[in-house]
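Following up on my earlier thread - several people asked me to post the actual chain instead of describing it. Fair enough. Here it is, all 359 residues.
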Amino acid sequence: MREVAWLFLKLGTIAFGGPAAHIAMMREEVVRRRRWLSDEQFMDLLGATNLIPGPNSTEMAIHLGYLRAGWPGLVVAGCCFIVPAMLIVFACAWLYVRYGARPEAAWLLYGVKPVIIAVVVQAMWGLVRTAVKGPMLAVIGVAVLALSLMGGNEIALLLGGGAVAVLLGTVGTRGVAASLGLGAGVGLTTLFLVFLKIGAVLYGSGYVLLAFLRNDFVERLGWLTDQQLLDAVAVGQVTPGPVFTTATFIGYVLGGIPGAALATVGIFLPSFVFVALSHPLVPRIRASRRAGAFLDGVNVAALGLMAAVTWQLGQAAIVDLTTAALALIALVLLFRFRVNSAWLVLGGSAVGGALHLRG
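Reply from S.P.:
Thanks for posting it. Predicted structure:
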């Protein structure tokens, strides 16, 4: 339990870069360094998280905690991954409400983003060797990558990848707010239920989260403006840990400390329930030939989606010679010297800070 708590507290504190980067860091820690499970088992859990709603990296943390320490580990891993990010976002929300200023962290992200791209590339390289078990699975992965870059729906691509793998028989015989004027008319019960609904039905990235939040809080309820919503999403994306801690920011702005607590519990609670229900099914799926084929297809589809996200993030992260050099150095340190990704993230942020102070 102490091992689970320490690992996910650390990741919740330093895991910048969104779900793809979080999952890459988890693989580095639990597969390569600690050997809690094999790459194939890790990919199976990743495939399972892609098939249920909610924040994928948080659900992966919950799965890993359950695998390592049972039911107590399920709760501890999820809470330890969420709480550091929640507290950081809470502090940003307090500053936002008190001073009415948008938090600026561009100087920090300048150095962190290219390092994150390198971390994700390293993780994908390791996972590709496990997930791609034949030429047809490779074709499925590449097709999902292309369709994702063309704007294909994530869930349709995941399910389609699994279905194609079954049809083609690719597996073989293997068996295994008040100060800003925002608080008036805000009901805490409604706030909680809206975030509970979002956590229970939302698939996809932070951009999909933005669409849900805008529909509920800007258009339907009228509690936020578009600019305030963008401020909230920006804070969720530039702070470490789950992007879904955007809920903490919105909850605090709309309802103070009770609002922040209820919003956070509401959006993350469904993930604990879904993982608790789905985790025991993963070994049974793997033991069935057809279900295992479906899971293999989902796994390579997930890698295709991960590659598409990495490409899109790379275009935003590597913007000049300095960031290109940071990404290249991080790749060399990861592949050649096996440096812990946490140190690379801290080093990238230090470089960004130093350049900011020089400028």
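The two ends are 45 Å apart (CA to CA). That should answer part of your original question.
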